Amino acid sequence: MTESPPPVVEMRGISLAFPGVKALQDVDFRLFPGEVHALMGENGAGKSTLIKTLTGVHRPDGGQVVLGGDEVAFTSPGEAQHAGISTVYQEVNLCANLTVAENILLGREPRRFGGIDFPAMRKRAKEVLARIGVHIDPASSLGEHPIAVQQLVAIARAIAIDCRVLVLDEPTSSLDAGEVAELFRIMRVLRDEGVAILFVSHFLDQVYEISDRMTVLRNGALVGEHLTADVDRRTLIAQMIGRDLGALEAIEDAAEKRHPDGPVLVHASGLGRRGAIDPFDLEIRAGEVVGLAGLLGSGRTELARLLFGADRADSGRLLVDGAPLRLRGPRSAIAAGIAFSSEDRKGEGLVADLSIRDNLVLAMQAARGWTRPLPRRTKDQLVEKYLKALDIRPANPDALVRTLSGGNQQKVLLARWLVTEPRLLILDEPTRGIDIGAKAQIQQLVTTLAAEGTAVLFISAELEEVVRISDRIVVLRDRRKIAELDGSTTGVDEVVELIAGGAAPEKVVS
Amino acid sequence: MTTLAPRVPSRFLPVLATVALFVIAFGVGSARYDGFASGQVIANLFIDNAFLIVLAAGMTFVILSGGIDLSVGSVVALSTMVTASGLQAGWPVSLVIVAVLLIGSTLGLLMGLVIHKFDIQPFIVTLAGMFLARGLCFVISVESVSIKDRTFRDVATAAIRLPGGVTITYNVVIALLVVAAAMHVLHRTRFGRTVYAVGGSESSALLMGLPTTRVKVGVYVISGLCSSLAGLLFSLYMLSGYGLHAVGMELDAIAAVVIGGTLLAGGVGYVLGGLVGVLVLGTIQTLISFQGTLSSWWTKIVIGVLLLVFIAVQRTMVRR
Ligand SMILES: Nc1ncnc2c1ncn2[C@@H]1O[C@H](COP(=O)(O)OP(=O)(O)OP(=O)(O)O)[C@@H](O)[C@H]1O
Ligand SMILES: [Mg+2]
């Protein structure tokens, strides 16, 4: 990394206020060619907003943006793209109704005879996808694919054109280790070609692995810019959250002390669905945290969807409290006290145009049925309780969900299910896009819930997390349950080995 | 990390369902009535509905983008009015055509700009446009104005012979050309694919850097242009201009598009679906006229039921 070239992007004194929130206050930011720059900060610190100010989604109230020496004021993301800034925004911002190829190339598609040259477009899309190690049919529609693949398609779109600035806002939030490695390989290639890369992630390991420089934001203000090599994790975290961090370590061993021996709440025997997940047996006790580990596409989400009735099982049966339960759909699961916080928060789950309170109340009411209204006092108390428990910011129940930062939306989604006080809580990637402070809080919350007798099925691509909080770990591979391990005696390495498909023998610990 | 999803033709299902419906309706007719299954009956479907085919093509753009255009029936009426009175005043046919098309697309442009700039529901804006265009008709004349221009009458009555003794009018040729052009633009150009993108998710389309403004306004221009062209075809069909022509035709156009499998929510559908939708409506009409004893209002009742069924089917398809 050389210090000599001038920055390709320079943002000076950027300020931006939304009604009621000062999202950015006098922020300076520099991005050099040929380096990976990590933008760090808690949920709601202003990272995405700074990015959107750079790419013309928001117009700053004050300050200037300089690109390649010239001051610019983009009025739309399209203009920024033309100027050579390629962006993957947080959340998947693509069109599910179009094909994969169109999502990658629309706006710069190959043409012929006054129309789009579809064969060439598919070919080109296939090449770009292959570059990041994805092999899917470019002619399939995007909506058919899981979130992680959609995220990869969004990345493919960003790298499909020559750009001088590549912005990646939490591109890895749903990706597996292998995919992340593939992405980093591409990022390094581009970096070496002189592209300036802006990278956002809440995974510190990733940040330390890939970035050369970092800028830290807190509450919309600049805390500092450092070379990555110069700051250790403790300092970085302290800078991000503005205090030292004890909570994280506190839960480390919380799981180990627990030996849940509540009654069996849910018992699946031979439950399965062709093409989604092979028949499996699974027991979850009240007060137990069961972790699901496996690669993307190993059937994690599919298993959860069966338990929730989102997909219909075509074999086996499900016992709840020892009595068979036929799930005719999510409604009957909810009625049986099963909650499922989905990984697709944009598509399912939240009503973006309603306030936090309304979203939570909707969930409460739906779970109770419309004939038994809750008193207003109770509602307010519950809303209050979870706003605080999850540290949702702003802690204003009337804030519209649409205006929250990505991580805070994730927390609202979680709260939405918690207020229904379920007996079995299925969490699919609950900590995706959540900063480490909040992650600790959520893990803490899961432990507390379990201690109070809730059964939790915890799904996460992050193995450390699964291993840390689970009492029992179920390992999936190729849509099959391959092992069940005791959470207190198992280490991450062991799980990794199983997942990777080393010829590890089937091992079952009750 | 590789997912090889099989290509499900589920996106074609609604269109195929409509085609099946058409075949069934036609089959029923052929089985019950002599002379139903003739080439000329099919040709008449096109002749009697050429203007509706053009309207449906324009409407498809708007609905795909997630909008709606209620003004099209009134713009048809206004176009017949301008055509008839222009010809009456002795304007050359070419000038009349240019004027009509210009008026239609300008109205569309204005509505599109208002919708976009002030961020008002398309429903409201085009409702206003509907009243405006209807009102303008009566500013020109409250009476029906008949068309006596020679060239115009010649084109209107000219019959094109097809093999098998079937004849069609120029209207049909124009309508089919419009459908072909719409298919090209919608399915094969950047503008068209951006219409789908905007209908799928406008905020995503914007973040993808696509020209959403151009598309959101553009679809109303196209719909306006199609409406005025449909108005010209309607003038040829009726050989008169009248402020009360085409009352409620916007609803027929919307019905045809929806029955043709286009999602009212936007983002999913095909131009060809709208064409088949029009044919389904036409067949029902023909069936009822062949039947003879039922009042023509039954057409509306059947269309109503069909619409409900199709919308219900679409809902379940979207939820999947
Ligand atoms: N459109 C909007 N209207 C109102 N407030 C907004 C809007 N967009 C963002 N905010 C607010 O601006 C602040 C910064 O949000 P931003 O999305 O930039 O956070 P972030 O650092 O990207 O967080 P995360 O890690 O959760 O993605 C938050 O308080 C958020 O609620
Ligand atoms: Mg963000």
Structural description of this entry:
The complex is a heterodimer of chains A (510) and B (320). With 510 residues, chain A is α/β, with parallel strands linked by helices. Chain A is built from 18 helices and 22 strands. In chain A, the strands form five sheets. Chain A has a six-stranded mixed beta sheet with strand order 6-9-10-3-11-12, sandwiched between helices. Chain A has a six-stranded mixed beta sheet with strand order 18-19-20-15-21-22, sandwiched between helices. Chain A has a four-stranded antiparallel beta sheet with strand order 2-1-4-5, covered by helices on one side. In chain A, helix 4 crosses helix 5 and helix 13 runs parallel beside helix 15. Chain A is globular and about 70 Å long. The C terminus of chain A is likely disordered. Chain B is mainly α and 320 residues long. Chain B has a single domain, classed as ABC transporter involved in vitamin B12 uptake, BtuC (Orthogonal Bundle). In chain B, a hairpin with a 3-residue loop joins strand 2 and strand 3. At the A-B interface, helix 2, strand 8, helix 5 and helix 6 of A face helix 8 and helix 9 of B. Bound molecules: adenosine-5'-triphosphate and magnesium ion. Chain B: It is found in: Cell membrane. Chain B: Keywords: Cell membrane, Membrane, Transmembrane, Transmembrane helix. Chain B: InterPro entries: ABC_transp_permease (IPR001851). Chain B: Its main location: membrane.
